[in-house]
Structures are given as C-alpha cells and as structure tokens.
Automatic annotation (TrEMBL):
Protein known as: Uncharacterized protein
Gene Ontology cellular-component annotations: cytosol
Organism: Cyprideis torosa
Highest rank taxon of the organism: Eukaryota
Family to which this protein belongs: Belongs to the peroxidase family.
Compositionally biased intervals (Basic and acidic residues): 12-22
Region annotated Disordered, chain positions: 1-30, 171-205
A single MF term (Gene Ontology): heme binding
GO biological process: cellular response to hydrogen peroxide; hydrogen peroxide catabolic process
Cofactor(s) it depends on: heme b
Transmembrane portions of the chain: none
Key word DNA-binding present: no
C-alpha cells in the first residue's frame, strides 16, 4: 500500500506520489494495480478513528509501510510526516488518454513513452509485471523498467533495490486466477459501493 501510494510519482510534472493520500479516490483506487488495497486501508481505519486529524491518511499509509518493514527486522531511516490529505480526487492530473484499463496508447514511434507519464499502461503504477503488454520478454521488460523508474527519479541501483526488496518483503498476490476478481470500486454494484474487487474464489487465499 505504501509503495503503491508513493509509486505514482513522476518527475515529468512532479505529480502523483504519497503526499495527498490520493489512493483513496478514483481513478487511482480503481486501478488494476491497486486491487484489494481498499482492504489494507480498511485495516488502518481503527488507527485513523483513534487519532483523527492528528495523522493524515497520506502519512498513515506511509507509516504503515515503515512499521511493516520494521516488524520484519528492517532498519528504516525513520519516518517523515507532514503530508496533508486532500478530500476530493485530483482532476488536474493527466494519467493518460486511454479509456480502458491496461490500454497503452501512450507510445509513439519506437516505443517512446508520452511525457509526463511514467507508467507503461493505464491503471498501473509502473510496469506490467508480466512484461510489455503481457509478453514475458526480459530484454524488452528491462527497457520499460529502466525508463519508467528513471521517470520516477530512480537510477538503476535504486530500481534493482526497490524491485528486489519489494518483491522479497511485499509480494502478496492472490492464488486465484484474475477471472475470480470482481469489478473495481468505481464499477462495483451499489450494494458493494466503495468496496470493489470482490472475489468469488472462496478459499480465503
């Protein structure tokens, strides 16, 4: 949750990132990359209720990431609070021209990514984990990874540390095929309004 909050940042226009708690709102809360993070945020609700406006949602999501790392024995550099929440979705951030999730009409020429975007497809925070357009080509994936993470302000060493470390400590993908996952929060039926990503797999996994 913390990485997916911070991971929307891009250097092209300085937009995105963890500073406003935008992960709570559309369209970011409905991105396929953020599936089921609504449940993680719900786990933080008792803390938010207890402390109210003494801690913002933006800070709480990042603090949760710090606490998770520390609980696994990782020594963090500390926590820097002070992020202010917004209470409406940002309407002035350009996430791409696509109208469907996972479309990638953001390229021109020989796979030149449109500025100021960093993510390779609509609804992802960075690259497609299955490879470019779902093609498991490691060379093509490396090119996408290098460009995307550079647009997030990272060099190769930082990128490797983040990807390897993040997938060592934070991999929590479900065991069920994607066909079992229901619609995103913004497309869920009214009786599930604001929830979304309902699974009919019924295994508890």
């Amino acid at each position: 949750m913390a990485w997916h909050s911070a991971g929307t940042y891009r250097t092209g226009d300085g937009r995105g990132g963890a500073r406003e708690g935008q992960q709570r709102f559309a369209p970011i809360n409905s991105w396929p990359d953020n599936a089921n993070l609504d449940k993680a945020r719900r786990l933080l609700w008792p803390i938010k209720q207890k402390y109210g406006n003494k801690i913002s949602w933006a800070d709480l999501m990042i603090l949760a990431g710090n606490v998770a790392l520390e609980s696994m024995g990782f020594e963090t550099a500390g926590f820097g609070g002070g992020r202010a929440d917004v209470w409406v979705p940002a309407s002035n951030v350009y996430w791409g021209s696509e109208s469907k999730w996972l479309d990638d009409n953001r390229y021109s020429g020989d796979r030149e990514l449109e500025m100021p975007l960093a993510a390779v497809q609509m609804g992802l925070i960075y690259v497609n984990p299955e490879g470019p357009n779902g093609n498991p080509d490691p060379v093509a994936a490396a090119i996408d990874i290098r460009e995307t993470f550079a647009r997030m302000g990272m060099n190769d060493e930082e990128t490797v540390a983040l990807i390897a470390g993040g997938h060592t400590l934070g991999k929590t993908h479900g065991a069920a095929p994607a066909t079992h996952v229901g619609p995103e929060p913004e497309a869920a039926p009214i009786e599930e309004q604001g929830l979304g990503w309902k699974s009919d797999y019924e295994s508890g996994k």
